[in-house]
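In response to the reviewer comment on reproducibility (Comment 2.3), we provide here a single inverse folding case reported in full, input and output, so that an independent group could reproduce the run without further information from us. The C-alpha cells appear first.
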C-alpha cells in the first residue's frame, strides 16, 4: 500500500501540467454564507510560522480572522486583567504589520468580522454592531443590539446576504437584520441563546439558534418563519448548510435536518461546544467537549473516525483540500489528514484557544489567548547549497532507509547530490520502496522532509529542458549540467522552496 501511494504521488507530481494558483479571499466566519468551513487550496503541510503579531498589547484573540485583498481583519477582546485597550485591527496578511486599529468602544470583541463592498461589520464587547471603512478603519456607524452584554457582548459573527446584515444577540436570542446604513429592518426574539452562535444563510433562507431551544429558518425577503426544529438542549454551534441539509450541535447531540422543511434526518450523541461543523465530501467534522475532533458521514451520521486530542475543542475546524485544521482549548493548533484523522502536525501557542482558523492565498490564520494572530504557510525559498562539484568516473555506496546498500554512479543526478553533500556539509536520505518502477527517491535533505502532497524532486537544466521522469540515480549527466533538487507540489518548478543547485564539472 505504501509503495503504491508513493508511486501515485510521484506520477501525479511529475505529470501535473499546471501549477496550483492562489486561492481567494476569506470574507466571513467559516468562509461562506452557508458556514461550511470548507475552502479549496493546499494548506500548510508543516507548522511553519511566517509571522505572529499581537493585535493589541493586552487582550485575547477569541474570534477568527477574515481576509480580503491581502489584509487580515481580526479583533481582540479583554483578558482577565481587563487592562489596556482592545479593538479590531487590519493587518498586512503577508507580514502581520499593522495598517489600522479601531477600538470599537475600547474593548474590542470576539466577533469574526464580515468584509463586503469595502465595509467591515463586527460585533463589539460592549454590545454594538459596528460598520467600518475597510480601507481606513474609520467608523461609519454603530448600533446597540445587545442590551445586556455582560462578559460576551455581541460575539455573534455577522452574516451578509443581499446587502443585509444578519446577526444574533444572546440575551434575548434575537436575530437582527440591518441594511448597509445601519437601519434595523426586522428582528425576532426567541429567548436566551449561546453568546457565540451565528446565523447561516442559503437559498433565500437564514438559519439561526433560538432560545426555545430550536433551530429557526426564516425567509430573508419576507422575514416569514418557514420552520423551527426543537432540540433537546441549547444549541452551541453555528449551523452549517450544505446539499439541502442543515447541521448543528447542542450540548448533547449533533443534528442533521432537512434545510427546506426542518424535518429531522439524524441525531448523534455528542458533547457539543461552540465548535461549529465543517462540511466536505459528504463528511461532517466537528470538535467536542470530550477532547476529540469527530468525522461523521453527512448522509446517515455514522462515525467515520475520531481523533483524540489533548483537550476540548472549541475552535471550529476548517477543511482545506485534504487537510483539516483547528485549535484546542489548551492552545495546540492541529493539522489532520481529512480522510482518516491522522495527525500531520501540531503547534503549541502556549495559551488557551477558541479562535477558528481561516485560509487565503496559501496562508492559514488562527488566533490565541496569548493575544496573537498566527499565520502559517510555506517559508520563503532557502538555498541549502549552490555551487560547483567535480565528478569522477566512479561510484558511491549509499544505504537506503530500508538498510539495502546501492552503488550510485558518480555522474548521475543522485551522484551529484551526494558529492554536493560532502562539499556542503548536509546529510540526505533515500527511499527504495519503488525501486523497481522508479529508482531511488530522496526522502530528506539537510534533515528537511517534504510536507503532505510534496516530495523532494529534481530537475536538470531547469527551465530549458523537460523534467526527468525517472529516479535521480538513473539520470546520467553531461558535463556542465545544472541539477536542482527541491521540494515539489503538483508540477511546481524549483522556486519558492528549499533547494540545492549543483553545477557539474568532470574531474
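Designed residues, in position order:
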Amino acid at each position: 500500500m505504501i509503495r503504491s501511494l508513493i508511486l501515485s504521488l510521484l506520477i501525479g507530481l511529475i505529470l501535473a501540467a499546471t501549477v496550483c494558483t492562489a486561492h481567494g479571499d476569506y470574507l466571513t466566519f467559516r468562509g461562506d454564507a452557508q458556514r461550511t468551513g470548507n475552502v479549496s487550496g493546499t494548506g500548510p503541510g508543516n507548522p511553519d510560522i511566517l509571522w505572529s503579531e499581537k493585535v493589541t498589547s493586552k487582550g485575547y484573540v477569541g474570534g477568527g480572522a477574515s481576509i480580503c485583498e491581502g489584509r487580515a481583519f481580526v479583533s481582540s477582546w479583554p483578558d482577565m486583567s481587563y487592562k489596556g485597550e482592545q479593538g479590531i485591527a487590519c493587518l498586512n496578511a503577508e507580514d502581520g504589520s499593522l495598517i489600522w486599529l479601531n477600538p470599537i468602544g475600547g474593548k474590542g470583541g470576539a466577533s469574526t468580522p464580515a468584509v463586503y463592498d469595502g465595509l467591515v461589520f463586527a460585533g463589539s464587547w460592549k454590545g454594538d454592531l459596528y460598520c467600518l471603512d475597510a480601507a481606513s478603519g474609520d467608523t461609519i456607524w454603530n448600533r446597540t443590539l445587545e442590551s445586556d452584554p455582560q462578559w460576551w457582548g455581541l460575539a455573534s459573527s455577522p452574516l451578509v446576504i443581499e446587502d443585509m446584515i444578519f446577526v444574533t444577540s444572546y440575551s434575548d436570542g434575537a436575530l437582527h437584520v440591518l441594511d448597509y446604513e445601519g437601519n434595523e429592518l426586522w428582528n425576532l426574539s426567541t429567548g436566551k441563546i449561546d453568546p457565540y452562535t451565528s446565523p447561516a444563510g442559503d437559498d433565500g433562507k437564514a438559519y439561526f439558534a433560538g432560545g426555545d431551544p430550536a433551530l429557526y429558518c426564516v425567509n430573508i425577503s419576507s422575514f416569514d418563519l418557514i420552520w423551527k426544529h426543537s432540540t433537546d438542549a441549547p444549541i452551541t454551534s453555528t449551523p452549517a448548510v450544505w446539499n439541502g441539509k442543515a447541521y448543528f450541535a447542542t450540548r448533547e447531540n449533533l443534528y442533521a435536518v432537512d434545510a427546506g422543511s426542518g424535518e429531522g434526518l439524524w441525531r448523534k450523541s455528542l458533547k457539543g461546544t461552540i465548535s461549529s461543523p465543517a462540511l466536505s465530501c459528504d463528511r461532517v467534522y466537528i470538535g467536542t467537549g470530550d477532547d476529540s475532533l469527530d468525522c461523521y458521514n453527512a448522509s446517515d451520521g455514522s462515525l467515520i473516525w475520531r481523533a483524540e486530542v489533548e483537550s476540548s475543542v472549541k475552535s471550529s475546524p476548517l477543511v482545506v483540500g485534504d487537510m483539516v485544521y483547528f485549535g484546542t482549548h489548551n492552545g495546540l493548533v492541529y493539522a489532520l489528514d481529512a480522510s482518516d484523522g491522522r495527525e500531520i502536525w501540531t503547534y503549541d501557542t502556549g495559551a488557551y484557544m477558541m479562535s477558528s482558523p481561516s485560509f487565503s492565498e496559501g496562508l492559514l490564520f488562527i488566533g490565541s489567548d496569548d493575544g496573537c494572530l498566527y499565520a502559517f504557510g510555506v517559508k520563503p525559498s532557502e538555498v541549502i547549497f549552490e555551487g560547483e562539484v567535480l565528478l569522477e568516473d566512479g561510484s558511491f555506496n549509499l544505504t537506503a532507509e530500508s538498510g539495502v546498500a546501492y552503488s550510485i554512479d558518480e555522474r548521475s543526478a543522485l551522484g551529484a547530490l551526494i558529492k554536493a553533500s560532502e562539499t556542503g556539509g548536509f546529510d540526505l536520505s533515500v527511499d527504495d520502496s519503488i525501486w523497481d518502477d522508479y529508482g531511488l527517491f530522496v526522502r530528506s535533505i539537510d534533515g528537511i522532509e517534504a510536507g503532505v502532497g510534496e516530495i523532494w524532486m529534481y530537475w536538470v537544466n531547469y527551465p530549458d529542458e523537460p523534467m526527468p521522469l525517472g529516479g535521480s540515480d538513473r539520470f546520467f549527466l553531461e558535463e556542465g549540467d545544472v541539477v536542482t533538487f527541491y521540494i515539489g507540489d503538483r508540477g511546481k518548478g524549483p522556486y519558492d522552496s528549499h533547494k540545492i543547485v549543483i553545477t557539474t564539472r568532470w574531474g
